[in-house]
Amino acid sequence: MNHTAKAQGATIWLTGLPSAGKTTIARILAGRLRSENHRVEVLDGDEIRRFLSAGLGFSREDRNTNVQRIGLVAEVLARNGVLAVVPVIAPYADSREAVRKRHEASGTPYIEVHVATPVEVCAERDVKGLYARQAAGQLTGLTGVDDPYEPPLDPAVALKTQGETPEESANAVYAVLAERGLV
Ligand SMILES: Nc1ncnc2c1ncn2[C@@H]1O[C@H](COP(=O)(O)OS(=O)(=O)O)[C@@H](OP(=O)(O)O)[C@H]1O
Ligand SMILES: Nc1ncnc2c1ncn2[C@@H]1O[C@H](COP(=O)(O)OP(=O)(O)O)[C@@H](O)[C@H]1O
What CATH fold (topology level) applies to the domain 10-179? Predict the structure, then answer.
């Protein structure tokens, strides 16, 4: 297939707690997809918050605004043939549903991946020290600890990252894309 002329885009949204493995899986998946000549963009929550969502905090309202902005950008990319990989917490089911609807409205594939690492494992990994800061009383409103996380009820795939390598997790997402004829 000639990917430059007729590429099929999609949004692949990786939702899950801090330190669940979203960013790691997104990077590995994106690397594999690029090596196969797909057009790929990773819309990382942390990066977007420095620019497109600068000034937004972690209230329900701000998280929703953040997720809708990212959802808009992802849908535009995906509609135009890009595989948009989105490692963003997106803790609220209604925000994720709005993003799904935006994709459905244009007939653009939207794949929801639950990076379903248990909070105890995430807190042990604590890549950015957020769980320690929350425990020390230096931070409140941490997703999964003292702020809500509404798990997806019907994700395309749920990854148990504590029992597998990051490569295996990324391969499981790739397999879903393959099943749906997107790669
Ligand atoms: N209170 C609180 N809760 C959750 N996360 C926090 C918080 N404060 C800062 N951070 C850091 O911000 C990153 C999450 O940003 P997102 O844009 O993915 O979150 S959201 O979808 O708007 O909820 C998240 O990145 P990841 O660890 O990669 O998930 C954190 O590093
Ligand atoms: N199967 C796996 N998938 C993804 N990350 C894993 C896995 N197993 C262990 N890890 C580790 O967990 C950490 C996840 O960090 P990160 O990807 O930054 O999480 P998030 O983006 O969800 O905050 C990394 O240190 C990664 O090496």
Answer: Rossmann fold (3.40.50)
